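Work Package 4 report. The design task specified in the project plan requires that, given a folded chain encoded as structure tokens, an amino acid be chosen for each position. We show below one input record used in the internal validation round.
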């Protein structure tokens, strides 16, 4: 028997039907997302080497995203005032992954007058049936169960990325549910989809993201008037899309030595792939080294076109030395003035979120077949501009 033919497959119609059955709804709104969805499913079935458990897990990821879309479209139909929400995205953190962007994002989001997408919201951005506004207990429980399941399958994630249902996290989780973010390649080994996505106009995803931010703000009236801070390394290769979608946002680029970035991120990807497939470490290393170089090349060209006036550069080492100073630079650029109360709250956040409170992240070049000289060569221009 041919094992490939016997392997379970991800099927579009089955997923759409499952989302409709879960919600009792059938209106997905504009179905522009079906094109990237089909591209992803074809790549995943051909390349991702998903285990049966991986197929089940990826199916759930897709179905819950489709269910959120169905519920949001229905809520907007019943509450058209959702679209009247005024959302201000004041900043977008981008940069290579593993550059301290997560802790910096959460630091900024802890500032009075700021807000961000929480992890449980990114997983299910629509309220569950019967949920009272301001009490998303079932969605929090769903997110906690997800994290617990991940930790059983890949316990090293605890040392790589701090996961907490209520902590701010990346909007690529939401965009990934529309199949237009690097979350797709981050969770499944799909090289052909990555190549396709690089040439696809992802702007429809960001237009829908604007609506989803309004929807999240409507769900939590305490957010009204707050400034949103977004964050994701996914914006690095597609910076212009985010910059056009949110033209008033400050673009914050975080920086770190690529000799730390590359093996650290490859290690993270190996841990994520472990949730649903078995991909050899050296294959993960080859793919993601090449991919990170591609991301940086695309970004460099985009930054030149966008213009330096939109950017603030933040060094990983400087955040470690003087986090309040670096946070203050960005907050003031976003119109949040500094005072003793703000600094006290930021200091309180930092005290409760020290790196040493999590397990040490152990990674190496050798494990993934990476070469120091090659990394130095490919990122020489980046280092000369931002690191040295």
């Amino acid at each position: 028997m041919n094992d490939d033919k016997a392997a379970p497959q991800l099927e579009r119609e089955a997923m759409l039907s499952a989302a409709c059955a879960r919600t009792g709804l059938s209106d997905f709104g504009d179905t522009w997302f079906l094109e990237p969805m089909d591209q992803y499913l074809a790549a995943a079935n051909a390349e991702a080497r998903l285990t049966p458990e991986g197929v089940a897990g990826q199916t759930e990821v897709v179905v819950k995203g489709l269910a959120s879309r169905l519920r949001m479209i229905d809520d907007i139909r019943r509450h058209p005032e959702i679209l009247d929400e005024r959302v201000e995205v004041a900043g977008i953190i981008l940069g290579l992954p593993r550059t301290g962007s997560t802790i910096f994002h959460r630091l900024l989001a802890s500032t009075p007058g700021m807000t961000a997408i929480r992890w449980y919201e990114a997983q299910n951005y629509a309220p569950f049936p019967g949920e009272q506004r301001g009490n998303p207990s079932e969605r929090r429980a769903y997110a906690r169960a997800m994290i617990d399941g991940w930790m059983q399958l890949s316990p090293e994630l605890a040392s790589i990325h701090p996961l907490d249902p209520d902590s701010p996290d990346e909007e690529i989780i939401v965009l990934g549910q529309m199949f237009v973010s690097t979350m797709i390649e981050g969770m499944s080994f799909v090289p052909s989809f990555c190549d396709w996505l690089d040439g696809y106009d992802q702007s429809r995803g960001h237009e829908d993201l604007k609506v989803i931010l309004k929807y999240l703000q409507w769900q939590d009236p305490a957010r009204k008037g707050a400034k949103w801070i977004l964050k994701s390394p996914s914006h690095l290769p597609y910076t212009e899309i985010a910059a056009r979608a949110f033209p008033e946002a400050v673009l914050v680029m975080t920086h770190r030595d690529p000799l730390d970035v590359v093996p650290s991120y490859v290690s993270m990807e190996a841990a994520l792939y472990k949730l649903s497939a078995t991909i050899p470490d050296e294959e993960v290393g080859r793919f993601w080294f090449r991919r990170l170089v591609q991301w940086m090349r695309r970004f460099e060209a985009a930054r030149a076109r966008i213009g330096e006036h939109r950017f603030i550069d933040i060094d990983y080492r400087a955040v470690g030395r003087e986090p309040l100073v670096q946070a203050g630079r960005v907050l003031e650029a976003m119109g949040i003035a500094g005072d003793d109360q703000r600094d006290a709250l930021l200091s309180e956040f930092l005290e409760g979120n020290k790196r040493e409170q999590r397990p040490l992240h152990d990674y190496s070049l050798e494990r993934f077949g990476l070469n120091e000289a090659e990394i130095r060569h490919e990122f020489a221009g980046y280092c000369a501009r931002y690191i040295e």
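The first strand starts at residue 88 and ends at 95. Validation will be extended to a larger panel in the next phase.
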